[in-house]
From TrEMBL:
<dbReference type="GO" id="GO:0046872">
    <property type="term" value="F:metal ion binding"/>
</dbReference>
<feature type="signal peptide">
    <location>
        <begin position="1"/>
        <end position="18"/>
    </location>
</feature>
<feature type="binding site">
    <location>
        <position position="61"/>
    </location>
    <ligand>
        <name>Ca(2+) 1</name>
    </ligand>
</feature>
<dbReference type="InterPro" id="IPR019793">
    <property type="entry name" value="Peroxidases_heam-ligand_BS"/>
</dbReference>
<keyword id="KW-0408">Iron</keyword>
<dbReference type="GO" id="GO:0042744">
    <property type="term" value="P:hydrogen peroxide catabolic process"/>
</dbReference>
<dbReference type="GO" id="GO:0006979">
    <property type="term" value="P:response to oxidative stress"/>
</dbReference>
<dbReference type="InterPro" id="IPR033905">
    <property type="entry name" value="Secretory_peroxidase"/>
</dbReference>
<keyword id="KW-0376">Hydrogen peroxide</keyword>
<feature type="binding site">
    <location>
        <position position="70"/>
    </location>
    <ligand>
        <name>Ca(2+) 1</name>
    </ligand>
</feature>
<dbReference type="GO" id="GO:0020037">
    <property type="term" value="F:heme binding"/>
</dbReference>
<keyword id="KW-0560">Oxidoreductase</keyword>
<dbReference type="InterPro" id="IPR010255">
    <property type="entry name" value="Haem_peroxidase_sf"/>
</dbReference>
<comment type="similarity">
    <text>Belongs to the peroxidase family. Ascorbate peroxidase subfamily.</text>
</comment>
<keyword id="KW-0349">Heme</keyword>
<feature type="active site" description="Proton acceptor">
    <location>
        <position position="60"/>
    </location>
</feature>
<keyword id="KW-1015">Disulfide bond</keyword>
């Protein structure tokens, strides 16, 4: 989960008083969760970094319009979508959602939403990376709007703790939950353009600065670096230990360990893996409830990249 633009303004996405429930598809599509899990497993076996990609997709989807899969819509000649906004230019994992959707349409057509696929795929990838196993309530429906300007709510990699917290509190989250969710950076990576400007930051460990400088000056098209330089592909609490050692790659990550309001939480999670994982489960499930569409609202897309009904982008 990597943030990619500077925060400019905020709007409120209320939490729905929702009827999501675990096992929502137990009668209508009994193999739904198995189908998603199998697709994620095949892709994880080829690329273990997909956990970070799916976490970031889930976050960017839910925080913008609520968890309605609006991030999946492709732009058309007449309308741009969220996917083309600056914040989402390097979001990845769309092909995994597409593959799962194709399997689900064969098993039970027009039944499982793309929004639920994102939530389930993220859950499964976290477990595969060594993180906690948790239940995901399902029953979301897919949105009918995807507007790139709506992504302005996402905090950027250069945000301070107070700036990032304003975005989180506007969506109903506490400081503890923000620090928890940013801990998902334990399996993420960032491209050089998101951290190159702070390679002279005195609050960066010199050995990390040298490594990142070498990566970014080594050629290639906008190279990338893992945000957790210790256990880069394992979902654990080592991200917090790294930023306490001034080995945070993104400015916002390092600020979590420097700002007095968040440093205590970072220290606590760094020393207690079980506490972090428990807090993460609560926070990610809560995030999956933001602004969900249910009942007759929205639709169940046939293709996650395209609205069934005329676009309102």
């Amino acid at each position: 989960m990597k943030f990619t633009i500077i925060l400019t303004f905020f709007f409120v996405i209320p939490f729905a008083l929702c009827d999501l429930k675990v096992g929502f598809y137990s009668s209508s599509c009994p193999r739904a969760e198995d189908i998603v899990r199998q697709v994620v497993q095949r892709n994880f076996n080829r690329d273990r970094s997909i956990t970070g990609g799916l976490l970031r997709m889930h976050f960017h989807d839910c925080f913008v319009r609520g968890c309605d899969a609006s991030i999946l819509i492709d732009s058309t000649r007449n309308n741009s979508s969220e996917k083309d906004a600056g914040a989402n230019q390097t979001v990845r994992g769309f092909e995994i959602i597409d593959e799962a959707k194709r399997g689900l349409e064969k098993a039970c057509a027009a039944t499982v939403s793309c929004a639920d696929i994102i939530a389930l795929a993220t859950r499964d990838s976290v477990a595969m990376a060594g993180g906690p196993r948790y239940s995901v309530p399902t029953g979301r429906r897919d949105g009918l709007i995807s507007n790139p300007s709506d992504t302005s709510i996402l905090p950027g990699p250069g945000s301070t703790v107070s700036q990032a917290l304003q975005a989180f509190t506007q969506t109903g989250f506490t400081l503890n939950e923000m620090v928890t969710l940013l801990g998902a950076h334990t399996v993420g990576f960032a491209h050089c353009n998101f951290f190159q400007s702070r390679l002279n930051d005195p609050n960066m460990d010199p050995s990390l600065r040298a490594k990142l400088t070498q990566i970014c000056n080594g050629g290639g098209n906008n190279p990338k670096a893992f945000l957790d330089q210790n256990t880069s592909l394992v979902f654990d609490n080592q991200f917090y230990n790294q930023i306490l050692l001034k080995r945070g790659v993104l400015f916002i990550d390092q600020q979590l360990a420097l700002d007095p309001s968040s440093k205590g939480l970072v220290t606590s999670f760094a020393g207690n893996a079980a506490s972090f994982q428990s807090s993460f489960v609560n926070a990610i499930v809560k995030m999956g409830n933001i602004g969900v569409l249910e009942g007759n609202n929205g639709e169940i897309r046939n293709n996650c990249r395209v609205f069934n009904t005329p676009s309102k982008a």
